[in-house]
Write a structure and sequence with these properties.
487 residues, alpha/beta, 14-stranded mixed β-sheet, two-stranded antiparallel ribbon, 15 helices, 19% strand, LRR_dom_sf
Length: 487
């Protein structure tokens, strides 16, 4: 008898599972899903392996369902192959949890797949649908979504409200559902178990009032990501609910599309009390012409929270408004200013300059600063002084009579590639990094054009130094003679 036949069935099942690529990659190549192909090959080696393969559900649940051997929309025959593979794997998956992902199909093409998947709805752990066939979910029996944890539903932008959607109470019977992502032109378009949700994503740039109404329904939210339009500053809310408290919300991301001159970004924050908030991300539409920011609204919002991380993307509050933000950022540890050219100036760096003799210290816990812009206006000496004022080596800290009143830099990322830095500034930044500062950025090596200048004419030494530094970091610029300070 071949030694492999003496291996116990339980151990052989584990061997079969290890033989399949379990890296978690659910992508398919031109020959089909790797995991499915491997399972089929193993099941055809011999009768014993076939029995083991067919009775090992783990071999058939390595990918999302339905299975796309080729894109199902390409032909009727291709859809039939995918349909047969999906049905076979579902039947062999036992009762293990599965992930369902169905999109980019017309209603007619999606219907047979959805019908087969609904037969196994008791196995769904995650569901992602991008189709007009959502109404078919009404066929799910009561208690058929006991394992469902995450839902991502998307309707085409041209869709109109469907009266049947308001009658679809299927998700109300999903006791484990915690994460919901909705993409539609209309909110809400499906009943959801809002009070039990911990993660909510609203895609579609809804008016702010429906977004606020949806947040009010979710007292257990931990993470909220919302795409919305701006709020008219003088427009009162549709319902006078005062300040809404979400006691568990730790992360809030707002992507705001400003359409008219009278719209603002901050009125929604005025209505939110988020005592547990740690991360705030504000992303303004790139094409907005009139950015309006109420420092008073934002300050009051800060005072009701304990924000440790703020990211401003394509936002350009006035220097005074940004200074107000920093002045009240007593818990802030991480600040990112991306594509905010009006914010990256001398006022920002002077505001962050630490002086032990000052009675008030701005952002005393700030450890990470990330700035990125292609059009900034500042003096590099001011930037250098600010950096030096908040960073010390271990030896320097040990010699101080007491700890400084502000945190030491942990990471600085200066993504301002268009800056024409001087040689002195470049050398200073390199020395700081050599002394231990985690400094990332793009600082091109300057070569003097004067032929009589020995340093400038000897480009070989400069290039060698630059190439060594660049060679140790593949993320550096492709430009010759540049030095990347990425860690």
């Amino acid at each position: 008898m071949c030694p492999i036949h003496t291996i116990p069935a339980e151990l052989m099942c584990e061997v079969l599972q290890l033989a399949i690529d379990t890296s978690g990659d659910s992508k398919f190549d031109s020959e089909g899903l790797r995991g499915l192909r491997a399972a089929l090959v193993l099941s055809q080696v011999c009768a014993q392996w076939r029995r083991l393969a067919l009775t090992t559900p783990q071999l058939w649940t390595l990918q999302d369902f339905p299975i796309e051997i080729v894109k199902p929309k390409e032909s009727v025959d291709a859809r039939k192959i995918s349909m047969d593979a999906t049905k076979a794997c579902l039947d062999r998956s036992g009762s293990l949890p599965i992930s369902v992902q169905l999109g980019d199909l017309s209603q007619d093409a999606a219907a047979p797949f959805l019908k087969e998947l609904i037969r196994h709805s008791h196995q769904w752990r995650t569901l992602s649908l991008s189709t007009e066939s959502i109404s078919a979910l009404i066929e799910i029996p009561p208690g058929g979504l006991n394992r469902l944890e995450s839902v991502d539903l998307s309707l085409p932008r041209e869709s109109t409200p469907d009266p049947l959607h308001s009658q679809l109470t299927t998700f109300l019977g999903a006791p484990r559902l915690r994460s919901v992502s909705l993409t539609s032109q209309h909110l809400p378009f499906l009943p959801m178990p809002w009070p039990q949700l911990t993660h909510l994503t609203l895609n579609g740039y809804y008016p702010p009032q429906p977004c606020l109404d949806a947040l009010v329904l979710c007292p257990q939210l931990v993470v909220a990501e919302v795409e919305m339009t701006g709020w008219l500053q003088g427009l009162p809310p549709a319902s006078d609910i005062g300040t809404v408290t979400l006691p568990c919300l730790e992360k809030l991301r707002l992507d705001v599309d400003i359409n008219t001159e009278g719209e603002h970004i901050t009125p929604l924050l005025r209505r939110l009390n988020l005592p547990a908030l740690k991360t705030l991300i504000l992303h303004l539409d790139d094409d907005a012409k009139d950015f309006r920011w109420s420092a008073e609204d934002f300050t009051q919002f800060q005072l009701r929270s304990h924000i440790e991380r703020i990211e401003l993307i394509s936002c350009s509050p006035a220097s005074a408004d940004l200074q107000s933000l920093l002045l009240h950022a007593v818990d802030l540890k991480h600040l990112e200013l991306l594509d905010c050219p009006n914010c990256i100036n001398d006022s920002l760096f002077l505001g962050l300059l630490y002086d032990a003799s000052d009675s008030v210290h701005v952002a005393p816990k700030l450890e990470t600063l990330v700035v990125g812009s292609t059009d900034s206006n500042f003096d590099e000496d001011t930037l250098e002084c600010m950096i030096l004022s908040r960073w010390w080596t271990d030896d320097q800290l040990h010699t101080m009579p007491g700890p400084p009143a502000v945190a030491r830099w942990k990471r600085l990322a200066l993504g301002m590639e268009d800056q024409d830095y001087s040689s002195d500034f470049i050398d200073s930044m390199k020395r700081l990094r050599e002394r231990g500062l985690n400094l990332q950025g793009y600082f091109p090596e300057r070569v003097e054009s004067d032929e009589g200048d020995e340093e400038g004419s000897d480009g070989e030494g400069s290039d060698e130094e630059g190439s060594d530094e660049k060679g140790s970091d593949e993320e550096g610029s492709d430009d010759e003679g540049s030095v990347s300070l990425s860690s």
